[in-house]
């Protein structure tokens, strides 16, 4: 007897196998991105590490309130594991994983399971996501908040189980997100979309007032430190709103932004590889924009469209905040994938076997896009000299010397001192100085202050970095030690 395609075990388990594959690939990519590519830290990551270490309940500084949740998480990790390459990046790696963990059910609810798996596969292999997820800076927080706020709101609209928990989660995340620059635009955009769309207005009116009051109270409590900081130093609001201190050249910013997303003929590199999406992914995003304008009556079209109206002007003013486009662009990508699948199935409306055979070239296309995206990131961030020079491996070089000596004196420049003070704060073996010590101890002298070492004393070892143009990073003096 002829068996139906739907009876095959592989077909019935296809989504579970797809989720497992996505999870495995995501874990592998995040580990490789955290340890291997680029394998170093930027000056921004060093600055954030210094900032996180200075957060204190005893001495409240309004400037520390920006990105406070991320700083507290990073400080807790420093207290547990010390300051290393991995501990600097662990907060972003964890939050990046949780962001995708929330994005997958969001796509399933907004679209379908096949669209969700394909789109997640494309997203986790983009250079933009992998770079943000491995960078020890709070840039990943905007993605995390956007994903989980949308997911919590969607679960409420679908009347999911435990509605009070989803309400509390929604209000708590909204309050926490306000600590992250530019999040206010996402919140306002979602509020405007909810006010304009009839179905969303209906859902809001049906929310139980008591549960909303409980969730709102928690939200106010979480917002209180931020509110106090803004009253004490109103200028902090400019940073949270992403308003630049000087009026930029809008033409230059717009050109830079367009090159970042659409310049496929002359790809360029810096701290972030550009263009951030491959040509195939961008074609799907454009297809999603087409779908957005043709099906503009749905709640998701309202949300995505209004969201872009609020954030595009901000990104033009400050292209460095381009990562706030990630989630709405991901939603457009999912819409493009869904549209492509719908049009593909319309070619074979009645013949299931023709559909399966017809999916072969589509599968090859998606697989090649994901593989090429991952390869582009890994090779670009590991071998491109224009990119590698932006990442320092000094923290690994210094930590590699720690097990060899009871104490190590680090002689560094004034610019380097704040970061190495953080290292010494969480590792008692290190002592940071700005002059060459005379006692019997191992001394690591930074390349920038090599002149502070006695001219009559030769270094016992020159510690080098194979990925840096100026590879001589530190000079080791044992000072009579064996």
Task: Report on the architecture of this protein.
With 482 residues, the chain is mainly alpha-helical. 63% of the residues lie in helices and 5% in strands. It contains 21 helices and five strands. Helix 21 links the parallel strand 1 and strand 2. Helix 2 packs antiparallel against helix 5, helix 2 crosses helix 7 and helix 4 packs across helix 5.
Task: Provide the spatial order of strands within the biggest beta sheet.
Answer: 2-1-3-5-4
Q: What is the oligomeric state here?
A: single chain
How does the overall form come out from the CA principal axes? globular
What is the count of helical runs? 21
Number of strands: 5
Main β-sheet description: 5 strands, mixed
The class by helix and strand makeup works out as mainly alpha
Query: How would you state the average pLDDT, rounded?
Result: 82
SSE topology string: HHHHHHHHHHHHHHHHHHHHEHEEEE
Radius of gyration: 25 Å
Q: What's the end-to-end separation, in Å?
A: 81 Å
């Amino acid at each position: 007897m002829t068996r139906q395609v739907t009876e095959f075990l592989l077909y019935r388990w296809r989504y579970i196998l797809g989720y497992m594959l996505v999870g495995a690939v995501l874990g592998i990519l995040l580990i490789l991105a955290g340890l291997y590519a680029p394998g170093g830290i930027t000056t921004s990551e060093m600055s954030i590490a210094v900032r996180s270490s200075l957060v204190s309940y005893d001495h409240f500084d309004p400037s520390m309130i920006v990105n406070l949740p991320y700083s507290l998480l990073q400080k807790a990790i420093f207290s547990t594991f010390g300051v290393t390459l991995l501990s600097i990046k662990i907060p972003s790696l964890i939050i990046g994983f949780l962001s995708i963990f929330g994005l997958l059910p969001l796509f399933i609810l907004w679209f379908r399971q096949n669209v969700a798996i394909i789109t997640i596969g494309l997203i986790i292999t983009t250079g933009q996501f992998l770079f943000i997820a491995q960078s020890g800076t709070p840039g990943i927080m905007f993605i995390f908040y956007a994903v989980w706020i949308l997911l919590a709101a969607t679960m409420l609209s679908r009347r999911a189980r435990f509605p009070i928990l989803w309400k509390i989660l929604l209000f708590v995340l909204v309050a926490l997100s306000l600590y992250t620059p530019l999040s206010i635009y996402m919140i306002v955009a979602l509020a405007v979309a909810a006010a304009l769309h009839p179905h969303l207005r209906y859902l809001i009116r049906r929310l139980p007032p008591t549960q909303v009051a409980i969730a709102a109270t928690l939200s106010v409590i979480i917002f209180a430190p931020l509110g106090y900081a803004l009253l004490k130093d109103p200028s902090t609001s400019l940073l949270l709103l992403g308003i630049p201190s000087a009026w930029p050249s809008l033409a230059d910013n717009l050109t830079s932004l367009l090159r970042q997303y659409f310049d496929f003929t002359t790809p360029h590199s810096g701290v972030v590889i550009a263009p951030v999406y491959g040509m195939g992914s961008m074609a799907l995003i454009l297809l999603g924009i087409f779908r957005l304008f043709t099906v503009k009556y749905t709640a998701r079209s309202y949300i995505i469209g209004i969201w872009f109206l609020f954030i595009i002007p901000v990104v033009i003013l400050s292209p460095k905040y381009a990562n706030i486009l990630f989630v709405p662009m991901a939603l457009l990508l999912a819409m493009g994938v869904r549209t492509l699948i719908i049009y593909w199935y319309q070619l074979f409306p009645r013949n299931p076997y023709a559909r399966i055979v017809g999916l072969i070239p589509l599968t090859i296309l998606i697989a090649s896009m994901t593989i090429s995206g991952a390869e582009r990131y890994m090779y670009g961030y590991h071998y491109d000299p224009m990119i590698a020079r932006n990442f320092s491996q000094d923290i690994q070089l210094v930590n590699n010397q720690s097990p060899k000596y009871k104490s190590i004196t680090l002689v560094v420049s004034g610019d380097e001192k704040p970061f190495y003070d953080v290292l010494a704060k969480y590792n008692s073996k290190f002592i940071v100085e700005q002059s060459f010590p005379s006692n019997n101890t191992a001394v690591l002298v930074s390349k920038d202050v090599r002149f502070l070492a006695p001219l009559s004393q030769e270094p016992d070892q020159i510690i080098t970095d194979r990925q840096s143009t100026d590879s001589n990073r530190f000079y080791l003096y044992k000072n009579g030690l064996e």
